[in-house]
Write a structure and sequence with these properties.
Helix content: 25-40%
Strand content: 15-25%
Shape: globular
Number of strands: 8
Radius of gyration: 15 Å
Structural class: alpha/beta
Length: 156
Amino acid sequence: MRALVAYFSVTGTTARAARRLAEAVGADLFEIAPETPYTSADLNWNDRSSRSSREMADEKCRPAVAGDAPDMSAYDTVFVGFPIWWYVEPRIIDTFLEAHDLSGKTVVPFATSGGSGLGKAPQRMATLAPGATVTEGRLLNGNPGADELRAWTKRM
């Protein structure tokens, strides 16, 4: 399996999970970084006018990604990691998915969350990555070990 772990992280939680996963399965690592970084005020989900609240309220919002992703043709499997925002993936993940031809690839969502599951994220992601096989994915909260991560990826 030639794999890429692409992830979006603001606080570092998802980044830690992504690094553990990439190391456990021998995958390349790519950070989906926003062109305009998020501030703590941007992330205040209690404020309807915060950046993240406005983005998540707008289904068509696609925040710009900084830098270029690796050549996706080099990978069979793309793990896509993110924090759960409003029970789904953040809109910047939508930007990433729509920017790349993932047809014929397996896309594996993984997320970190303070209290919710993946929600509708896998189903939404499947509509944004036509031709890809999007798995149900899983939460990678806590600190799953390398053996657990390898066992999970082998079950797919």
